[in-house]
Structures are given as structure tokens and as C-alpha cells.
């Protein structure tokens, strides 16, 4: 198995090279440059030209590309033009924020979706099942930004139960219990919103897997052995129904760093998604390139992780 | 000794809110240490009958009426909990496709052990011991290794041996084998059948063997029942049935078996198909529509069983007038 994992990791290299070329070329093809927004009638065009020359933006593309890759391999994705700081440390800070938000979101999502999915599948066609299916269709149909704005308005502004933006209040001291609680408090509303919106997939998957599993021959065998139905659910049906959920777990784990563009933007949470949007808006090439590369890498890693997890939970699948 | 007495059993399935009987008034008995074969083509209701005996039909979609007497008890009046004590312990079942009938995510040992957990008061160690012994009993040479394996790691024949080990684990009085060899290749078939017979000699269980393979019947059965469209149409000890089949359906069935010495290039087939559940004629001889060259008055209006020799029963009177179609066309 270790051999396979190493081989898969090596196979990622050409994929990442291809991705880096595409990302670099597309970033360069975007109209404008970091200075476009700074130009005022007073700006001296010669000064802009000078700055461009200084940053190497006038060099031929292949040279710029090689320089970028060389630095990136050393963990240096350049400087953000708009934030005036290292991209790596900027992303690191945002990634940590996003990680905590996503982590709480995913935990809430599973806490909500798994029991609902199990109940719906177990008591198929009951009123409870119909209600859960109705609920999951509703949350699937509501666009993210609508529910986010609605929650923000109701729970944030009207009821004032939750803060309406940011990741932590300024006055709390870092490192204290209050600080941790305050951060958690800021995460909660966006996390709840995310969890509610994300439940549909898990509920529907689990429900249909359970309904399918009920008609399987091995369930009939278990019944013919005299195993009570309650035990058949816990020992045979549920375990087998979790396989597709487990198969997504790898993507879910790496997705923790991806962040949600809509949720972070609307709740004013300084995470990766928000950074991605603002960097596109401000033509911050070095940040865009670094983020897309990171997302690409995470996706590849997620698929490998998923395969590994799947091979652990399903004995029929062995990665050789 | 009769261990199972089935009286006037009906099993109906719900199709558009109406129940249609797939098993329509079946009565028979099973003795211990007897192999009773039920034969018939696909869709005749033989598997439905087997599933009804062990009580595995869906409550809402199937309606089972009549009597299934197992000792003193009528299984149709037993609660789900009582049935769980009977299933696996006193009546066990072997299914057609052993790959899908075993849980793909569970080790073989655990799947055999499960039956013991619910029907014996063995300790954990005793159960594990018993699992190994059962695997040996069904002819698996490396029981320790196989017990730790998963179903997909075994061959088809091995899997069916495992199914048999599960079935015999609690020494049931009745084993229902629903086409146990259909999914296996011919050499393995013979091994599995030998194993079943051998185990039956040890346990003296009554076996209901469901099959459409007349070769299997000839090799295994003591008594045979032929089913057509939900009814038993002929019942006889195996030698009698093979020596002198009486009902037109049975005769056509034998006639359609490929013969090694025959120079005939085409196989003999029975014309037509089994009528679907919703279009089944519920009165008169159900086979009449497939032997149209036999005059209508040869059939009884309400076909009943006629005992034509000891233990040999035939439904309807049409058998007396039956001839094969090619003969009748020559006569004309």
C-alpha cells in the first residue's frame, strides 16, 4: 500500500506542472495589472513602467513562469501587491481561519445529516421520511447567499444572537479561553448556515443507500438466520450504507482548507474563499496563482485520501 | 414423521392495490430425513413458496393465508419475535447466489457466528470453536484462514459451502435450499449436492429442494412435486415420476430435456409462456391454454388431485387424453 501511495504522489507531479502552466497563462491573460486600480490623473506613466520593470512584469512569459516555479518550490509565492506582504504567510493565516470554520461546519453537517439520513432510510415512506426529504429539497433549492443573508439579518442584526462579521473581536487577548470562545462564537453562525445547506447530499446518499441495502440478499440471509431487524440495521445495513459517505471523506478533509466563497464573503469572515474573491477583483496575480495551485493540489490529495479511506472501509477494494 | 404440514397455502402479491396469488392453494407435508424436490419453470411460484415458509415476505406487499404447521405451531400466527427464534435455529435456508447472499463487508467467521449468537448460549470462545468445526464439516480445508476472509476472496463453491455451514450451524429440523447449485458450475454442483446429502444423513433434517434442474432431482430427491402457475399439479416418489410422468406438463417437461443420443437438432420446447400473475385463469385447468390440441372436455371444471397409484397424485383429468402435439398432427 505504501508503494502505491508514493507512486500516486509521484504521478501528481506532471498533473501539477500542467495545472501550473494553465494557471500562470490564464492569470497573465486577465486584463489589467496590479497597478491599474492605482492609476490616478496624477500618476506618472513612467513611474508605473519603472515599477513593472522592477517586479519583472515586462520579462517574456516563459522567464516569468520559470522564476515563479523556482520560487514556489521554495515556498515563496511572491508578494501580494494589494496586501503588501508574503503570499505564503497571508495564505497560511487565512487557511487557519478557514480550517476552523470548515471544521466546525463539517462536524455540524454530519451531526445533522447522518441521523436524518438514517431515520429517513430506516422509516422509508413514513411521515418522518417525507418531512426529511422535503427539508432536504428545500435546503438544496435555497441559494447559499439567500440563506446566508437571511440568517445574518435575522440572527445577526435583528436578534443580535451572533456577531455579524470578522473572526474575532479586537478587544480579546490572544491565548486566553475568552479568545478561543470568541473565535468559536464568530464561527458558529456561518458554520450553521453551511451545515444546513450541505445536508442534502449526505441525507439523500445515506437514505438511498439504506433503502437499497434493505433489499439486498445478504439482508435476507441475516433474516433467515433469525437476526432481529433492529440488529440487522446496526450490523448489516448501516455499515454498508456508509461506504459512499466514507468515499467522499478524503475530499471533505482536503476541502476543509478550501473555504466557501459565498459564506465567507457574506459573513465577512477572513478566510480563503474571501481572499480568493478579493484577489481576483484586485488582479493580485501571485495570490490567485498560489490559491489555484493549492486548490488543485488539495483536490488531487483528496482523491488519493478518498481511495485510501475506501480501501480501509471496504475489504473488496485494495489499492495495489 | 411429518415435521412440516402445509395446508391450503396462498401467497398473494400486491399489484396496483389488488392481491394476486402467486402460490394458489398449495398443500403438502415434509417428513424428517426426507428430500422433497419442488420443480417448475421460472415464475411458477416455487421460490415464493419457500420464502413464505420461513416468513420472509414483506408484510405490506404480500398476503399469506392458510396454515404452515411446524410441530404444534402455525408459523403464520407466530409473531416476528417467535419467528426469529425459529429462523436459523429450526428452519434454515440456503440461497441461490452465495456471493450476494453473504455480506461483502463481514468476515466469513462472523457471518457464521451470527446465527450461533442468537440461537445458542455458547461463550465467545465456544462460538469461534464451533465456527471452525462447521467450516471443517462442510469440507473447507483451512478453516482458520477462511474464517478471517471476506466473501469475495472465496470461490463460488466455497461460498456455497459457507452458506451451508450457516444453515446447519444450529442443527435445524428443516433446510430449505432454493436453487442451491444454479449459480455454480457443473463439477461444483455435484460436490455441493453430495455435501448436502451427507449432512442430511448426519442431522436427519428434512430438506425442501427447489430447482428447475431435473438432473438434480433425479440425483437427490425422495419425493417430487411439480409446480405450475402457483399450483402443484403432480406429486410422486422420485422413481415413479421419472418412470411414468402423468400430467401433460410433467411429460412435456421431461420431453424438453436434451437427449444425448437424440439426432433431433432442435430441442423440444413447450409452446407458449406461463401466464402472468394478473392474467392467470383462476378456474379450470391452468395448463389448458398451453396444450390447445387437447379437447376442452378432457379437463375438469374444478381440477382436483387423483391418486393414481400409492403416493402418486395428479391434478385434473387431462392427462388421460394427452398426447404430444407431433403425434396428433400425424394422426390427423
Automatic annotation (TrEMBL), chain A:
InterPro entries xrefs: BPD_transp_1_N, MetI-like, MetI-like_sf
Subcellular location(s) of the protein: Cell membrane
Every ABC transmembrane type-1 domain range: 95-306
Key words of the record: Cell membrane, Membrane, Transmembrane, Transmembrane helix, Transport
Pfam family, one: BPD_transp_1
GO cellular component, one term: plasma membrane
Swiss-Prot/TrEMBL GO biological process terms: transmembrane transport
Keyword Protein biosynthesis on entry: no
Domain of life assignment: Bacteria
Family indicated by similarity: Belongs to the binding-protein-dependent transport system permease family.
Full protein name: Peptide/nickel transport system permease protein
Naturally occurring in which organism (per UniProt): Ureibacillus thermosphaericus
Taxonomic lineage from the root: Bacteria, Bacillati, Bacillota, Bacilli, Bacillales
TrEMBL record, chain B:
A Pfam family that the UniProt record links to this protein: oligo_HPY
GO cellular component annotations of the record: plasma membrane
Keyword Nucleotide-binding in annotation: yes
Gene Ontology MF annotations: ATP binding; ATP hydrolysis activity
InterPro entries xref list: AAA+_ATPase, ABC_Ni/Peptide_Import, ABC_transporter-like_ATP-bd, ABC_transporter-like_CS, Oligopep_ABC_C, P-loop_NTPase
CDD domains, sorted: ABC_NikE_OppD_transporters (cd03257)
Compartments where found: Cell membrane
SUPFAM superfamilies: P-loop containing nucleoside triphosphate hydrolases
Topology of the protein relative to the lipid bilayer: Peripheral membrane protein
GO biological process: peptide transport
Keywords: ATP-binding, Cell membrane, Membrane, Nucleotide-binding, Transport
PROSITE patterns named in the record: ABC_TRANSPORTER_1, ABC_TRANSPORTER_2
Domain ABC transporter span(s) in chain numbering: 4-254
Chief subcellular location: membrane
Family affiliation: Belongs to the ABC transporter superfamily.
Protein name, as recorded: Peptide/nickel transport system ATP-binding protein
Annotated source species: Ureibacillus thermosphaericus
Amino acid at each position: 500500500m505504501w508503494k502505491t501511495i508514493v507512486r500516486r504522489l509521484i504521478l501528481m507531479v506532471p498533473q501539477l506542472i500542467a495545472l501550473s502552466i494553465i494557471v500562470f497563462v490564464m492569470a497573465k491573460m486577465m486584463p489589467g495589472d496590479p497597478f491599474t486600480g492605482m492609476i490616478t490623473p496624477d500618476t506618472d506613466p513612467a513611474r508605473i513602467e519603472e515599477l513593472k520593470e522592477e517586479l519583472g512584469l515586462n520579462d517574456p512569459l516563459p522567464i516569468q513562469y520559470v522564476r515563479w516555479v523556482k520560487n514556489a518550490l521554495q515556498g515563496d509565492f511572491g508578494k501580494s501587491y494589494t496586501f503588501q506582504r508574503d503570499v505564503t504567510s497571508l495564505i497560511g493565516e487565512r487557511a487557519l481561519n478557514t480550517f476552523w470554520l470548515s471544521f466546525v461546519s463539517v462536524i455540524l453537517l454530519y451531526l445533522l445529516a447522518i441521523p436524518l439520513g438514517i431515520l429517513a432510510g430506516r422509516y422509508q415512506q413514513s411521515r418522518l421520511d417525507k418531512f426529511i426529504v422535503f427539508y432536504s429539497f428545500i435546503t438544496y433549492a435555497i441559494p447559499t447567499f439567500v440563506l446566508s443573508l437571511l440568517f445574518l439579518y435575522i440572527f445577526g442584526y435583528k436578534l443580535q444572537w451572533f456577531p455579524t462579521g470578522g473572526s474575532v473581536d479586537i478587544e480579546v487577548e490572544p491565548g486566553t479561553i475568552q479568545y478561543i470562545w470568541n473565535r468559536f462564537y464568530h464561527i458558529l453562525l456561518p458554520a450553521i448556515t453551511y451545515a444546513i445547506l450541505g445536508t442534502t447530499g449526505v441525507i439523500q446518499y445515506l437514505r438511498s443507500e439504506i433503502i437499497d441495502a434493505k433489499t439486498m440478499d445478504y439482508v435476507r440471509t441475516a433474516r433467515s438466520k433469525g437476526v432481529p431487524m433492529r440488529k440487522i440495521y446496526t450490523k448489516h445495513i448501516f455499515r454498508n450504507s456508509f461506504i459512499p459517505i466514507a468515499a467522499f471523506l478524503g475530499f471533505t478533509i482536503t476541502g476543509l482548507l478550501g473555504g466557501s466563497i459565498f459564506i465567507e464573503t457574506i459573513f465577512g469572515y477572513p478566510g480563503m474563499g474571501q481572499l480568493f474573491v478579493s484577489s481576483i477583483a484586485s488582479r493580485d496575480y501571485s495570490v490567485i496563482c498560489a490559491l489555484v495551485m493549492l486548490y488543485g493540489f488539495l483536490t488531487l490529495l483528496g482523491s488519493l485520501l478518498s481511495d485510501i479511506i475506501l480501501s480501509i472501509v471496504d475489504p473488496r477494494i485494495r489499492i495495489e | 414423521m411429518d415435521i412440516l404440514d402445509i395446508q391450503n397455502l396462498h401467497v398473494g402479491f400486491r399489484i396496483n392495490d389488488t392481491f394476486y396469488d402467486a402460490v394458489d392453494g398449495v398443500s403438502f407435508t415434509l417428513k424428517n430425513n426426507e428430500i422433497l424436490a419442488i420443480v417448475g419453470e421460472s415464475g411458477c411460484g416455487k421460490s415464493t413458496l419457500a420464502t413464505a415458509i420461513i416468513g420472509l415476505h414483506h408484510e405490506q406487499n404480500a398476503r399469506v393465508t392458510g396454515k404452515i404447521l411446524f410441530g404444534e405451531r402455525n408459523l403464520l400466527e407466530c409473531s416476528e419475535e417467535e419467528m426469529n427464534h425459529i429462523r436459523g435455529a429450526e428452519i434454515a435456508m440456503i440461497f441461490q447466489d452465495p456471493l450476494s447472499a453473504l455480506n461483502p463487508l463481514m468476515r466469513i467467521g462472523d457471518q457464521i457466528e451470527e446465527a450461533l449468537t442468537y440461537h445458542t448460549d455458547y461463550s465467545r470462545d465456544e462460538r469461534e470453536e464451533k465456527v471452525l468445526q462447521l467450516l471443517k464439516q462442510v469440507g473447507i480445508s483451512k478453516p482458520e484462514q477462511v474464517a478471517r476472509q471476506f466473501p469475495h476472496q472465496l470461490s463460488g463453491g466455497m461460498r456455497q459451502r459457507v452458506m451451508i455451514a450457516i444453515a446447519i450451524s444450529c442443527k435445524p429440523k428443516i433446510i430449505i435450499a432454493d436453487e442451491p447449485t444454479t449459480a455454480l458450475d457443473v463439477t461444483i454442483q455435484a460436490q455441493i449436492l453430495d455435501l448436502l446429502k451427507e449432512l442430511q444423513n448426519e442431522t436427519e433434517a428434512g430438506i425442501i429442494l427447489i430447482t428447475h434442474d431435473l438432473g438434480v432431482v433425479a440425483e437427490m430427491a425422495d419425493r417430487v412435486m411439480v409446480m405450475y402457475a402457483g399450483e402443484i399439479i403432480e406429486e410422486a416418489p422420485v422413481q415413479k415420476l421419472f418412470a411414468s410422468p402423468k400430467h401433460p406438463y410433467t411429460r412435456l417437461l421431461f420431453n424438453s430435456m436434451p437427449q444425448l443420443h437424440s439426432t433431433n437438432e432442435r430441442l423440444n420446447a413447450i409452446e407458449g409462456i406461463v401466464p402472468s400473475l394478473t392474467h392467470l385463469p383462476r378456474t379450470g385447468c391452468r395448463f389448458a391454454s398451453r396444450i390447445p390440441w387437447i379437447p376442452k372436455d378432457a379437463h375438469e371444471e374444478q381440477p382436483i388431485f387423483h391418486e393414481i397409484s400409492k403416493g402418486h397424485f395428479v391434478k385434473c383429468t387431462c392427462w388421460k387424453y394427452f398426447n404430444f402435439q407431433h403425434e396428433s398432427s400425424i394422426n390427423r
